[in-house]
């Protein structure tokens, strides 16, 4: 969970090491089953911690089932909903490229947003939602310095995010496609990678 306690004497240069808008790829050394072979998108990363959503682990829910539970009529094309992470799995998070601001929207960068309010789901249900979107239940959170420590322990790799992987790639191909962006064949990975 992200904490809001500032660290005294924090070096201002840390802001330049933010992984916001990056993909985070789990490595075999990461033993947490919540993140085994996952690809996540980092929505926030600053001196207080980090927050992201996993984008390649389908849940048992689909968009149609979710909208039925919310009593929102829907006749559109059904799609997968992902397990975004172990925190607040009873809450929906919509990652999208639409520049409209909904009732509860976080502006991640100049074209990416994360919305948690029901109004965007109502717009999606009637065909007036964002052109590109991905829905998750829950999110992943890291406390102050936690993600940095995990990166030093070789638990993660990171690379710039890619809209094609986010929104137009099948869930079981996303991780490998992101690895290829880094020039890595994921079939060659093992848990023995160490520090040089």
Can you summarize this structure?
The chain is α+β, with helices and mostly antiparallel strands and 196 residues long. It is built from 5 helices and 10 strands.
Q: How would you describe the overall organization of this protein?
A:
The structure is a single chain. With 196 residues, this protein is α+β, with helices and mostly antiparallel strands. The chain has one domain: 3-Layer(aba) Sandwich (VC0467-like). Helices cover 20% and strands 30% of the residues. It contains five helices and ten strands. Strands 1, 2, 3, 4, 5, 6, 7, 8, 9 and 10 form a ten-stranded mixed beta sheet that branches. The protein is globular and about 45 Å long. Mean pLDDT is 87; it is low at 1-15 and 192-196.
Query: Tally the helices: what do you get?
Result: 5
Remind me, CATH topology? VC0467-like
The CATH architecture can be given as 3-Layer(aba) Sandwich
Instruction: Report the helical percentage.
Output: 10-25%
Backbone structural class:
alpha+beta
Terminal Cα separation, in Å? 31 Å
Compute the number of structural domains: 1
Q: What is the makeup of the main sheet?
A: 10 strands, mixed
Number of strand elements:
10
Give the low-confidence spans: 1-15, 192-196
CATH superfamily membership:
VC0467-like
Q: Categorize the overall geometry.
A: globular
Q: According to CATH, what is the class?
A: Alpha Beta
Order of helices and strands: EEEEHEEEEHEHEHH
């Amino acid at each position: 969970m992200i904490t809001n306690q500032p660290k005294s004497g924090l070096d201002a240069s840390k802001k330049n090491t933010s992984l916001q808008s990056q993909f985070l790829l789990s490595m075999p050394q990461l033993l947490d089953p919540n993140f085994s072979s996952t690809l996540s998108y980092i929505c926030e990363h600053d001196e207080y911690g980090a927050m992201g959503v996993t984008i390649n682990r389908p849940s048992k829910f689909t968009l149609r089932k979710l909208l039925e539970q919310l009593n929102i009529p829907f006749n559109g094309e059904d799609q997968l909903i992902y397990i975004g992470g172990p925190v607040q799995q009873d809450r929906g998070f919509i990652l999208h490229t639409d520049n409209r601001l909904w009732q509860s929207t976080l502006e991640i960068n100049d074209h990416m947003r994360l919305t948690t309010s029901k109004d965007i789901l109502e717009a999606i249900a009637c065909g007036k939602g964002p052109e590109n979107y991905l829905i998750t239940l829950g999110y992943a959170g890291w406390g102050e310095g936690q993600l940095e420590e995990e990166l030093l322990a070789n638990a993660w790799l990171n690379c710039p995010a890619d809209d094609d992987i986010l929104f137009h790639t099948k869930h079981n191909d996303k991780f490998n496609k992101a690895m290829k962006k880094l020039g890595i064949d994921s079939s060659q990975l093992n848990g023995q990678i160490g520090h040089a």
